[in-house]
Amino acid sequence: MSQAPVPTPETPKRRSPVPLILLVLVLGSGAVYGAQQYVWGRTHVQTDDAYLTGNLVNVSPVIGGTLSAITVSEGDEVKEGQLLATLDSDSQKAALAQAEAALAAMKSQVPQAIANLEFQSRSTDAAIQRARSAEAIQQARTQSAQAQVALADKTSTSQLTQAQRQLAAAKAQAAQVGLQAEAAAATVHQLEAQADTARAGLAGAKRAVETARKGVDVIAARLSGAEADVEKTSRDEARYKGLLEKDAVTRQQFEAIHSQAEGARSNLAALKEQVAQAQSQVAQAESQVEQAASQVKSVESQVLQARAAHAAATQAAQAAKEQAKVAEAGVGLARAGGGQVAVQAGNLAATTAQNPQLAAELATANAGQSQVTAKREAVNAAKTQVDQAAAQVASARKALANTTLSSPTAGIVVKKTANVGAALAPGQTILTLTQGKTVWLTANFKETQVRDLRIGQPVTVHVDALPNKTIIGHVAVIGAATGATMSLLPPDNATGNFTKVVQRIPVRIALDGDLDGLSQGMSCVAVVDTADKTEHSERILKGWDGKK
């Protein structure tokens, strides 16, 4: 039998070292990367809860009105002072024209008041001069009568001549005093007519006060309703804001509630302004009542004085007539040639009896100075009314200028909230602009990351919208409170419902270099190098937040 072949034993295969080498390389790379990340993490903090922000400016009218034109659209770049919108200005132009007409009317009253003052002053001076002249004449007459009594025994011829002269003088005096009495009567009628006019003006001013007070009551009644509306809409706005943050309502719904709240607040402000204006009108009407009452008192005082002057003039005219009769009798006696001394003695007594009357006329003329004072006060009142009318013209011009809305700053139109034809309330926003093109970064770091943050530390910023662009900045402001404390419903751990959550601290980062292509609201990733633990405020560029 043939022998079976013996099988050759198999040589064991050697395992390839490649997997082991790869494992060692992976572990080594991971260890190196982990070490690098550990070292990097000790001097850097990073967050993706960051976004670009900047200043926004709301453009709104100071006065209410209808929007007649808007000259810009969303996305337009505007310059400071550029015309943005205009309101319908017909009512403001009419108010300006009315105020200017009132000013012209008030100015026209000033020359008349000055003329009245000058006339009254000259009339009073003339009356005083006449009274003093009459007093001097009376003294001369008295002296003449005394001389006639002394000469009566010497010559009857001189007595006759003197008597004839006295007769002529008495007639002239009677005619003069008669004219004065007629002038005094005319003055009394004129002043009584002025008194009636002043009383009518006082009654009209009182009615104006009542009307103005009723206007205040009507607006005040509307004010309580407006306050209640503001309170309700403000509560709805706060509630919708919280719901918006929770995505429970849409932005459009929140904006509608917000617009209602803004409209209610604007309406309340307008009503308060109307109340203030109505109260001012009440005060002005009351001032006019006081002025009218003062004018009535002044005119009534003038009427009393004029009546007294008329009575004195009438009495003087009667006395002058009596004196003329006495003079005629003296002429007859002188011609008769007998009892001349007795007649002249009677004339002397009659002349002396007129001295108190002339003194009363002088006192009445001096009393006319009070009328001059009243006319001077009327001139001052007219000038005051001119100043008030000028202030109303300036206010009307300001209101007309407020119908034109210009850009308060250079920037870009972000949002337009009103269209042509809309009825706007004071303070209602129609456009929202950016304040220039300046933006900065607001990064919300965890409270465990801000321990080593310092002002001026360098920051590397990556914008999600511009993945190939890296921006360098510096820490400018480290928030003094967490974002939760400024929320609509801040946490209150004292209630017992406590859940510890890592809070976020807002940090503002000033950006350096080119800011083109950056818009407010863009999401970013911020990395702060905290290796340097000292502050360097000098590294922050001036005007990083748009302030000059």
From TrEMBL:
Main location: membrane
Keyword Transmembrane attached: yes
Membrane-topology descriptor: Single-pass membrane protein
Entries under Gene3D superfamilies matching the protein: 1.10.287.1490, 2.40.30.170, 2.40.50.100, Helix hairpin bin
Domain CusB-like beta-barrel: 438-478
UniProt keyword list: Coiled coil, Membrane, Transmembrane, Transmembrane helix
Coiled coil: 89-116, 254-309
Keyword NADP included in the entry's annotation: no
Any one Gene Ontology cellular component term annotated for this protein: cell envelope
UniProt similarity note: Belongs to the membrane fusion protein (MFP) (TC 8.A.1) family.
Protein name stated in the entry: Membrane fusion protein (Multidrug efflux system)
Source organism: Armatimonas rosea
